[in-house]
Amino acid sequence: MKKALLSTLVLPLLLAVCTPQALANGHNPPPSADSSLQTLLEGNKRFVVGNLLHPHQTPAHRTGLAKGQHPIATILSCSDSRVPPEVVFDQGLGDLFVTRVAGNVLSDEVLGSIEYGAEHLEIPLIVVLGHERCGAVTAVVQGEHASGSIKSLFKHIQPAVQKAKQSHPPDLVEASVRTNVRMVVHQIETSKPLLAQKIHAGKVHVVGARYDLDTGEIELLR
Ligand SMILES: [Zn+2]
Fold first, then answer.
1. What is the 3 CA–ligand 1 centroid distance (Å)?
2. Are 2 and 36 found together in one domain?
3. Is 78 flagged in the annotation as binding?
4. C-alpha 109 – ligand 1 centre gap (Å)
5. 2 and 74 housed in the same domain
6. How far is the CA of 176 from the centre of ligand 1 (A)?
7. DSSP letter (8 states) at residue 29
8. Is 106 in the same domain as 3?
9. Which pLDDT value is given to residue 222?
10. Beta strands in 16-79 (DSSP E)
């Protein structure tokens, strides 16, 4: 009887735990990029209507995470205090690997963080998240004088503003926000050798998105 119980209960468990991928990672296989994106968009829907779950924020979850993290998505977003990724996607501890910098621009250090997430944490999805009326983008559009290291921040945003100007959009700030996100997505997708190779192999997917300050909605920029 004991033997029968063992084979019924323990063997399937062992088989589930000892798949090559589970052994390599020490955890369940990472989710697909599609599944991660779905989770984020569902969380944003909850945020928009104020029906938040505040998942993964209990002391028990915190304790469980202490030994390691397996985030479902990397987010590169603006430092703007109104766009915290964990809040606008209704996620919790250990869910998102976040880099925030004004204008959501890509410096070498930011790229290194994103590469780390893809290489060492096996994160399948990278989201570049811009937002409506971004102050950093607006400052560049208005040709504001930059002092100190803000200069180098503006330098990263200027190419997007120049490109957006070419189509004479009715709202240059909005067009620049969108162009900036698309350009950063392209920079990540073509970043060699690490990310370009992973993206080509289908292991990592990059999407651009824009957050609406008025409605709280996240729009994917295709
Ligand atoms: Zn901003």
1. 62
2. no
3. yes
4. 19
5. no
6. 12
7. P
8. no
9. 82
10. 73-77
Distance 78 CA to ligand 1 centre (A): 5
81 C-alpha to center of ligand 1: Å?
9
| Contact of 188 with 206, CB cutoff 8 Å | yes
Separation of CA 135 and ligand 1 centre (Å): 5
Tokens of 132: 């409506």
Residues 125 and 36 sit within 8 Å (Cβ to Cβ): yes
Does residue 94 share a domain with residue 183? yes
Residues of the chain whose pLDDT is less than 70?
1-27
Residues 16 and 62 in one domain: no
Give the per-residue pLDDT at 29: 84
Same domain for 101 and 191, yes or no, is yes
pLDDT of 155 reads: 97
3-state SS class at 2: helix
pLDDT value for 27? 62
Tell whether 131 is in a known binding site: yes
Cα of 130 vs centre of ligand 1, distance in Å, is 7
Looking at residue 30, its pLDDT comes to: 87
The CB density around residue 66, as the number of other CB atoms within 10 Å, is 8
Domain at 89, CATH number: 3.40.1050.10
Annotated binding residue 212: no
Domain that holds residue 19: 1-27
Q: Which helix (H) or strand (E) holds 192?
A: none
How far away, in angstroms, is 199 Cα from ligand 1 center? Answer: 27
My answer on whether 45 and 14 are in the same domain is no
Pair (20, 62) in one structural domain: no
Number of domains in the chain: 2
pLDDT given at position 22: 37
